[in-house]
Design a protein that fits this description.
By secondary structure, the chain is α/β, with parallel strands linked by helices. The protein has 4 domains: about 1-110 and about 250-320, FAD/NAD(P)-binding domain (3-Layer(bba) Sandwich); about 125-250, FAD/NAD(P)-binding domain (3-Layer(bba) Sandwich); about 340-450, FAD/NAD(P)-binding domain (3-Layer(bba) Sandwich), CATH 3.50.50.60; about 460-555, Rhodanese-like domain (Oxidized Rhodanese, domain 1). The chain contains 17 helices and 32 strands. The strands form 9 sheets. A 5-stranded parallel sheet has the order 5-2-1-9-20. Helix 1 (about 10-20) runs parallel beside helix 8 (about 310-320) and helix 6 crosses helix 17. The protein is globular. It starts with a strand and ends in a 9-residue tail after the last helix.
Length: about 550
């Protein structure tokens, strides 16, 4: 059998390596248009920031090492330009010209291309992307050449990593995104925590605006003594940001042209359509990685998910399918994590916006536990958001914190894959010792709260209900008088949670027949008060996540003091 693989890196090289392990007799040819067939593209920002100073550390394999270890015929600098499906041939071009490669099975792993918005000045040599080793070389060359200011367009995963990397190299960094907040896939109430961390480290954050042009600077008399800069990024609100390097990270598009030109089915999103065995609309052609259309494991939505983990697994699965092994490539959960200076943000499954778009009824749970036992030194609070269906099924989770985020997100990602419910989360037996966790792990705690919501023990209200609650209900603040005096919601009645029972009549009189909306700092003390109020016949609800969540979701909120 002759297998031709178009494109290396995660998906393509995983397919090639797996195919060789399954067959010593197969002829396996990998063509890669760039010079690097197997490199750690997720490490590129850290190379730019000099945390990975040695460029060679990014190069996982070379054509020579792949030939020696796996007997693969790897041809870099070779671009596939056409597929003749009837003849089962791929036309390729290298430095010596064009020729054809026959195949019995063809695997397409063309990846994705960085989106370059059609704005004036986008072709300036100071405008860079960060997807390949040469991209990293170019950015490092600008930094090493004396760049002092950087503008990063796009505040997604790569944009945030790039902003941090350039900051580590001593540049003044501006971060721009059209979305209302940084890291658009994360829920609003967590995004503000990340934005505060970016600003605290000196990143100039601009959200809700886009770049409309990249122009040569306009000199003025005041500017004459200052050090020159290469370009100015003009934003849609008129702001002009000086830059010696502009890093473009506004998203990617599937590189599906080769497949589309060959008549393979391509979805409305531009991604190659594949079945559960990664087979395209042609029975002899498979496709993997950033260029394919996958199904979201929670919402069922179809579209590309450009992540290294799924691409690696898809490459392996495609090779299995080629050799007749039973394969059902699973749907993708979009599990991801990113460092934001001293914080970590992680997510898995569906966020609240995706669930609303898909019309999936759900509950949202906010908890703020420590990453390990509070009495052990070094305990640090995290912010965990869990979404569960009305049937209790776990749908998604997000977390932000200094430590322990990765562990909890991975546990919940596994739980979603297993089809677990809130009851299962509550009963998970997780490793515990004071330096590592708590007897009631944050995952268990989220499960407990979800159980209470599902069985009616706990009724929640949310930050987005605040305006209605303020107009139609009594806001009951059950924190201590000192906490209340440090900042409270206008018109809120302060009754510490330990005093609620003895002051029920006072609360009833203040409510005057209205509902009571209770809150504390994080949601636990107010839960206790909520149970007392419910037992006493009040229409009561507890603020999910308390003031911690409210302040994160409404950073513009003005609190009364005194």
């Amino acid at each position: 059998m002759k297998i031709v693989i178009v494109g290396g890196v995660a998906g393509g090289m995983s397919a090639a390596a797996r195919a060789r392990r399954l067959s010593e007799d197969a002829e396996i040819v990998v063509v890669e248009k760039d010079d690097y067939v197997s490199f750690a593209n997720c490490g590129l920002p850290y190379h730019v920031g000099n945390e990975i100073p040695n460029r060679a550390d990014l190069l996982v394999q070379t054509p020579q090492s792949l030939r020696a270890a796996l007997a693969l015929d790897v041809r870099t600098g070779t671009e596939a330009v056409a597929i003749d499906r009837e003849a089962k041939q791929v036309r390729v071009v290298d430095a010596n010209g064009e020729y054809a490669l026959d195949y019995d099975a063809l695997v397409l792993s063309p990846g994705a291309r960085a989106i370059r918005p059609p704005i004036p000045g986008i072709d300036s040599p100071l405008v860079q992307t960060l997807r390949t080793v040469p991209d990293a070389d170019s950015v490092r060359a600008l930094v090493d050449g004396g760049a002092r200011r950087a503008v990063v367009l796009g505040a997604g995963f790569i944009g945030i990593e790039a902003a941090e990397a350039l900051h580590l190299r001593g540049l003044e960094v501006s971060l721009v995104d059209l979305a209302p907040h940084v890291l658009p896939p994360i829920d609003d109430e967590l995004a503000s925590l990340l934005q505060e961390e970016l600003v605290r480290h000196g990143i100039d954050v601009h959200t809700g605006v886009s770049a409309t042009a990249i122009e040569e600077p306009i000199p003025t008399e005041e500017d004459a003594p200052a050090e020159p800069h290469g370009v100015e990024v003009v934003l849609s609100n008129g702001t002009r940001l000086p830059a010696d390097v502009v890093l473009l990270s506004v998203g990617v598009r599937p590189a599906s042209n080769l497949a589309a030109d060959a008549g393979l089915a391509v979805g409305r999103n531009g991604a190659i359509v594949v079945d559960q065995t990664l087979r395209t609309s042609d029975p002899s052609i498979w496709a993997v990685g950033d260029a394919i259309e996958v199904r979201h494991g929670v919402t069922g939505a179809l579209g590309p998910v450009p992540l290294a983990g799924p691409a690696n697994r898809q490459g392996r699965a495609a090779a299995d399918a080629i050799f007749g092994k039973p394969v059902t490539a699973p749907a993708v959960l979009g599990t991801a994590i990113v460092r934001v200076f001293g914080l970590t943000a992680g997510m898995t499954g569906a966020n609240q916006r995706q669930l609303r778009t898909a019309g999936i009824p759900h509950h949202v749970i906010h908890v703020h536990p420590n990453q390990h036992a509070g009495y052990f030194p070094g305990a640090k609070q995290m912010h965990l958001v869990l979404t569960v269906g009305t049937d209790g099924k776990v749908l998604g989770a997000q977390a932000v914190g200094q430590e322990g985020v990765d562990k909890r997100i991975d546990v919940i990602a596994t739980s979603i894959r297993a089809g677990f419910t809130a009851d299962d989360l509550a009963e998970l037996e997780l490793a515990y010792a004071p330096p590592y966790g708590s007897a009631k792990d944050p995952v268990n705690m989220a499960g407990f709260v979800a159980q209470n919501v599902l069985d009616g023990t706990l009724r929640l209200w949310y930050p987005w209900d605040l305006d209605d609650a303020a107009a139609e209900a009594l806001i009951l603040d059950v924190r201590s008088p000192r906490e209340y005096a440090s900042g409270h919601l206008p018109g809120a009645l302060n009754v510490p949670h330990t005093k609620v029972r003895e002051r029920l009549e006072e609360i009833r009189e203040a409510a005057a027949g209205r509902p009571v909306r209770v809150h504390c700092a994080s949601g636990f003390r107010s839960y206790l008060a909520h149970r007392v109020l419910t037992a006493a016949g009040f229409d009561s609800a507890n603020l999910s996540g308390g003031m911690l969540t409210l302040r994160a979701a409404r950073p513009d909120l003005v609190l009364d003091k005194g």
